[in-house]
Q: What sequence folds into this?
């Protein structure tokens, strides 16, 4: 029973880490943009940093999506989840 609870916690933490990585990627992009703006004095570099952060967040979501597809493909090939034909017992006929 404890193993099942641990697996649920690990799965929830993995899903939570995706949300955290999205926020952190955008914040890092904003930080880079603010640093470039302060360094060069050009306002549009802030937007470049924001764009980089959003692109990194989208990349994180894409990587998580590919990992889920891989996981589902493994389950698809698992014999436990294959359609089983019913056993035809025609002995009574």
A:
């Amino acid at each position: 029973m404890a193993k099942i609870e641990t697996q649920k916690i690990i799965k929830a933490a993995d899903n939570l880490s995706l949300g955290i990585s999205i926020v952190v990627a955008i914040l890092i992009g904003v930080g880079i943009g603010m640093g470039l703006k302060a360094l060069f004095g050009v306002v549009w570099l802030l937007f470049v940093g924001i764009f980089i952060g959003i692109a990194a967040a989208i990349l994180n979501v894409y990587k998580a999506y590919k990992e889920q597809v891989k996981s589902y493909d493994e389950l698809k090939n698992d014999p436990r989840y294959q359609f089983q034909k019913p056993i035809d017992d025609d002995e009574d006929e």
In short: The mean pLDDT is 86. The chain is about 75% helix and 0% strand. The longest helix spans residues 2-40. Residues 2-78 form one domain.
